[in-house]
Amino acid sequence: MVEKKSSIPSSRLFLTGIILLLFSFYYSYSANNLSTSFMVSQNWQQPELRNHDIIVPSSSFEFPSTVFYSWWDEKTFAGSTSCKDVRHHEQEGIWKDPNDGSYFIRKIKKAPNHYVSLHNNDYDPVRFRHIFLTGNYYEHEVHDRFELILAEADRTNITTSRSLPTVVDVGANIGYYSLLSAARQHAVVAFEINPSNLVRLCDSIELNTHFHSDNKEKDPTAFFGPIRMFRNGVSSQHNQTLHYAVPKNPGEASIQVLSEDNKNHRPQLESFANGTSTNDPFFTTTVTLDQFASDHGWQIPTTQNNDDDTSNKDIDIAILKIDTEGHEPYILQGATKLLHSHLIRNILIEYRSHCRDAVFEFVLEAGYVLVDDDKQTKNKRRMLTKEASKDYIDGLQKRGGYTDLWFRLESQRLPEG
After folding, report:
1. CA geometry: angle at 35 spanning 219 and 23, to 5°?
2. Do 102 and 121 contact (CB within 8 A), yes or no?
3. What is the pLDDT of residues 240-253, one digit of tens each?
4. Among 1, 50, 104, 384, which residue's CB has the most CB atoms within a 10 Å radius?
């Protein structure tokens, strides 16, 4: 009797080899790609910067205190939410952190290098997948526009105004564009109604402020711009109570008009959450940008002969960015005086098919035109005329969908780059 030897079919060996090969490729990619990010599920202490890219946390970490900047007076801070407030609400259980004690921090690949704190993959898979795993944001066109405009201050000495050039970020989310602006040494006014996003933004503010302070010896001129957070819903009506439920997808938070009083044209507002709410509902109030500007001393210049001359302006707003998942028209309606003041140089806004053309028409009437920088066309970046801008918006209304628009003061030249 001859004993047969057991054997593994060659097809199975081949399949096993393929799986091992794929796994080795994946491991190699992950190790390389995550070299500038980290995750910890414990408290840390003083973080160390090693090999320029990797933060190595030790035990019992406490984020460093936020640095306040002397060129923003107390009036500028009025009504803002501080990181101390955020931490207090978090510790008291009033606001819940989706990460539940874990941190997901990524160093952004593009200069200027800075750090972004992210929600976990379950709570915010889009930003986790793009920022944490790749070090880049997915809105490439908007990001490039930001970079171009932020660099303009360095080339044209816009900082001759009485304050730093400022970015107003309406719908800041976790603060990607706020942090990019601060890393470019701009002051930031960030509006965000989702408390969970403010938790992440405070992580990022405190980390970046700390590391910029540590790098003073290498570059004495380096600093991380001040970011002031406001947990108000920006709209066309001021001081209206807003009932807010945190959505399952943090990028889908919006203020929705339930009805409109035809007599007074006062929209009845409510925040809505697509899918299951992750927290108990909250209350906050609305602001208009016009009233906010008045309350915080953003004085309209007495003369407007030269939009490039910022010496007589209390504030120079390089960018007004609006991304509020459909509420953009109402925000513009509440910013009529601010638009006509020409304190704002650029408006970056998401256009959706349900937006009313009339809203964008008064942006054009206020002295702004569209910038055409569509990379899919053969045209070079150019500023459209007022009439061409109107035709472009009319075309968007017919086509439907949504796109990101760039409005710029008609009196200004395009930034170089």
Report:
1. 165
2. no
3. 887 766 655 555 55
4. 104
